[in-house]
Design a protein that fits this description.
With 206 residues, this protein is α+β, with helices and mostly antiparallel strands. It has 3 domains: 65 residues; 66 residues, no CATH class; 48 residues. It is built from 5 helices and 7 strands, in the order E-H-H-E-E-E-E-H-E-E-H-H. Helix 1 runs antiparallel to helix 2. It starts with a strand and ends with a helix. 15% of the residues are buried.
Length: 206
């Protein structure tokens, strides 16, 4: 089975940066009224400075977290590794996968990326809400989803040449068994007819 490894598209990092930029702007706008409610201006400036200072590590984390993400589809299942600080490795075997969903928000559609949700029986939810594994920032979401679904089907119903041979063998055995059963029935009927003939012959003699 071919091994498929890929990383999220760079647009995912751009989307994360835009999201946090919105939070920064919103926070500054919320803190700005401090200048007009009688609070010392230095207190207001300090609050804004501290707020922005706290967000700087977040921007560093975004770059590190993006670089750490990697997805893999191999013969064991669907895998993901990541984590900027705490390393995370997730493996979902094909035998446990019950559903594969794709989602695209407005911004994701704009950047032509999406999210694939790999669900298991114990992690069900609406549209991948509680997915066991999420593949964010995927460009060809439909193609990747179809690949995973095919792998699941192949793992669940392993036909191939070996499977076909097993099916033919089963059919052959079934046919032989049926023929044997049919001949046995005819043989039993023949024996019963012979016994009836003998009984009728004895009755005629008497």
């Amino acid at each position: 089975m071919d091994v498929i490894k890929f990383k999220p598209e760079k647009e995912l990092k751009t989307l994360w940066l835009i999201t946090w930029t919105v939070w920064v702007v919103a926070g500054v706008l919320l803190l700005t009224p401090l200048f007009f409610i009688g609070i010392e201006s230095w207190i207001a400036l300090t609050s804004i400075f501290v707020y922005i200072l706290i967000l700087i590590p977040v921007l560093i984390w975004i770059n590190a977290a993006f670089n750490a993400i990697e997805y893999c589809i191999d013969d064991e299942g669907v895998k993901m590794k990541g984590g900027a600080v705490w390393k995370k490795h997730v493996t979902v075997p094909y035998s446990k996968i019950t559903n594969v969903d794709v989602t695209q928000g407005p911004m994701q559609r704009y950047f032509n990326i999406g999210t694939i949700h790999v669900q298991t029986a114990g992690a069900g939810g609406q549209q991948g809400q509680k997915a066991e594994l999420r593949m964010n920032g995927v460009r060809d979401i439909e193609k990747i989803r179809d690949i995973i679904i095919k792998k699941v089907k192949d793992a669940t119903y392993p036909l191939g040449s070996t499977g076909e041979e097993k099916i033919k063998l089963a059919e052959s055995v079934s046919t032989k068994d049926s023929s044997h059963a049919g001949s046995q029935v005819f043989e039993d009927i023949l024996n019963e007819l012979k016994e009836i003939k003998v009984l009728l012959g004895k009755r005629e003699e008497n």
